[in-house]
Amino acid sequence: MLSRILIFSIFSLLLLGCKAKASFENGAGEPPSHADFTTLLKKYVDIRGGVDYEGFLEDRTALGDYLKTLQQNPPNSQKWSEEDQIAYWVNVYNAFTIELILEHYPVKSIKDIAGGIPFVNTPWDIKFIEIGGETYDLNNVEHGILRKYFEEPLIHVAVNCASVSCPKLLNEAYEGSTLKSQLERQADFYINSSGKNNINGDNWELSRILKWYGGDFKKRYGSVEGFVRAFATKPLSENPEISFKEYDWNLNLPAAMK
Hints:
This protein has about 260 residues and is mainly alpha-helical. The protein has one domain. Helix content is about 45%, strand content about 5%. It contains 10 helices and 4 strands. The chain has helices at about 1-20, 35-45, 55-60, 60-70, 80-105, 140-150, 180-190, 210, 220, 225-230, and strands at about 130, 135, 205, 240-245. The strands form 2 sheets. A two-stranded antiparallel ribbon has the order 1-2. Strand 1 (about 130) and strand 2 (about 135) form a beta hairpin.
């Protein structure tokens, strides 16, 4: 009996995986425009990634229109480039994270959100993202799609969890045509920002993101240390001692609003 249950469970998971993958094959013929999201980001996100959520509240209709564009134009893995697909899902993550904050604003931290929602452990488990007939949570987007289907470790400097210790929210939407340069600019800022990573001297204090997802950087960079060296703009210690910073989950507001 136990073996039958196990077989059924495995079969069910395979079906779910196939269903999720199939949904990427029946999407829009062309990627949607992300220009409207860029307009909003340039208005309400500063160059260091501080987010004016009160400004976004005033323009919530415009954000909602962009979210509808994403919802109505799911990706098509048969017709879209990989870069277009990655850009789409990163924009989904970032735009819907902003919407989640606005829905509960004012909050001091994104982690304050899920406590009052029955059967939801974290804000990343709230299923509120409806795309192509499927409903996703933020974990589905990051781990079940971006990390599962694309070997692009730099998504970790692109998705933004609305917190101080996150890589900054880029003040422009990601686009397939410019994805590589956008991700590299983000990685450069992230690695060389002392607020995110301190790589001076023999003792490196790195972002805890690099501890949580260190394995994702191995194939391309060899290790987390290799990733740091690939984007560091100054000479580095040959044999650093590495530790990881505590994570600051406070909302990623502009300095003037803190």
